[in-house]
Amino acid sequence: MELIEKALEFEGRKMSNMTTSDRVKASREAKTLILAINEIYKKTKDAKLMDIMKLLTVKKKKIEKRLKGVPTV
Fold it and tell me: Which domain of life is it from (predicted)?
């Protein structure tokens, strides 16, 4: 259950005042956590794990949105 604690700690972190390299690291960490939780979810089918993955995915999308910047028209 250490993995779940890491995921909840990641989800609770502040994402303001991050450098670009910090955002890249955070995005990679989120991806690693999501994939690891997914492996456990495949075996247990625990709804709580799915909720945690959803929270991490939302946070990861926000980080990546900020990395890619505003699209030019």
Answer: Bacteria
For the chain, give every domain's residue range.
2-12+26-68
- Round to whole Å and give the CA distance between 57 and 67: 15
Taking the C-alpha atoms of residue 9 and residue 17, their distance in angstroms, rounded to an integer, is 18
CB atoms within 10 A of CB 37: 20
CA angle 26, 52, 49 (to 5 degrees): 130
Contacts of residue 47, Cβ cutoff 8 Å, sequence gap at least 6 = none
**What pLDDT digit, counting tens, does each position of 29-54 carry?**
999 999 999 999 999 998 999 999 99
Q: Rounded to two decimals, what is the model's pTM?
A: 0.82
